[in-house]
Amino acid sequence: xxxxxxxxxxxADEILAMHGRIRxxxxxxxxxxxxxxxxxxxxxxxRDGASTTAALAxxxxxxxxxxxxTVQALEDLGxxxxxxxxxxxxxxxxxxxxxxxxxxxxxxxxxxxxxxxRLAALDPDDRATVARSLTxxxxxxxx
Length: 143
Hints:
Elements: H1 8-28, H2 36-48, H3 53-60, H4 64-76, E1 80-84, E2 92-96, H5 98-120, H6 124-141
Antiparallel strand pairs: 1-2
Helix pairs in contact: 2-4, 3-4
């Protein structure tokens, strides 16, 4: 382990710090008007399907009022739409529009392209180490 990583807690801190650095790097290269929280909510809708604002808030770990503002901003951008729940007229269902799906797809491609360019600049042995690290990290989150 390097000098900053002496314990499992140190290693956990370094992994979380690296996650933040990767996330900030990808956000810095964004070319759209969608914020990180909006992107997360849109991604969840694209990945998991339609949802209520309350369920989105629970899934993202934010207050319903905050998610309401996020959904409104996404709706203003034409990336999501709200419809009345056919089984419960008191509830509203939020779903990604075609434009939302396209925006998410474009964003994913852009982030992938940026990381691929940086990975291409690495020594082949270092790329192999990164690939192996992903396999190992996968075991941490699959427990």
